[in-house]
Design brief:
binds S-adenosylmethionine; Rossmann fold; 18% strand; alpha/beta; 8 helices
């Protein structure tokens, strides 16, 4: 993402007082500048009208990215981490994102209701494989004609990139950045199977950028007929 846009979004995550915690600011600034995630997702969603459900939304960065990209949409973000959801709510309010709402949801236990587009960014590996399959089947019923499911995921394989993704997620957990532990990395075959069983056709593209991770962008739509 262009540095000016990244900075504009990250500034909203600055603490109210100069001595407050700046972790969210530095994290979002670095992530938005260096990670090809948001340009990839914004491009995939650009020609698909309608609201966006963000499963495992973290701090709700996607809502801000859509806003600065000139894609005004209703946004619904859910995450298991109550602290992140509270911060996401505060920042969205402060930024004036009126159409953004957030809820604490454990996607291992239940799935929200929605009609429109769906994003699942860097979170599938936190669910067991059979829950991934069930959630993708549920999500497929949310997609109206023309809507898209956009997934970014590290794929599980024995490549150096695959190993780097797994080790980094574990480090994030032990460092306290991520409460949850990865449960099951989808492989390309498992994900293709889950999406096909859910009645979706999908395209897979590597989204490595300058990172060492095995990240892929998967864009799925309901199969015609
Ligand atoms: C790597 S972060 C990605 C956050 C956000 N999607 C992004 O791209 O910036 C993974 C997120 O998944 C959330 N998560 C993990 N397990 C979850 C679960 N069972 N239900 C809901 N959210 C979960 C974590 O709390 C975390 O915010």
């Amino acid at each position: 993402m262009p540095p000016q846009q990244a900075l504009a979004i990250a500034r909203a995550f600055l603490p109210k007082r100069p001595w407050g915690n700046r972790y969210d600011y530095y994290y979002t600034r670095a992530k938005l500048r260096t990670d090809p995630l948001y340009p990839g997702v914004l491009a995939a969603l650009r020609d698909t009208p309608g609201p966006v459900l963000d499963l495992g939304c973290g701090l709700g960065l996607l809502a801000h990215a859509l806003h600065v990209d000139g894609q005004p949409r209703a946004y619904y973000g859910v995450d298991i981490d109550a602290s992140k959801i509270e911060r996401a709510r505060q920042i969205a309010r402060r930024t004036g994102l009126k159409d953004a709402r957030f809820e604490v949801v454990d996607l291992g236990a239940r799935w929200p209701e929605h009609t429109g587009n769906v994003a699942i960014l860097d979170m599938l590996q936190y669910l067991p494989s059979q829950v991934q399959a069930g959630m993708l089947a549920h999500v497929s019923r949310m997609l109206a004609p023309g809507n898209k499911l956009v997934i970014r995921s590290a794929l599980g394989d024995d490549s150096g990139r695959g190993r780097t993704s797994k080790v980094t997620d574990l480090m994030a957990h032990f460092a306290g950045w991520m409460q949850e532990v990865p449960k099951s990395y989808p492989t390309r075959e498992s994900l293709e199977g889950h999406l096909a069983n859910a009645g979706l056709s999908a395209t897979f593209s590597p989204l490595y950028g300058n990172t060492p991770f095995n990240n892929w962008l998967i864009v799925a739509e309901r199969r015609a007929g």
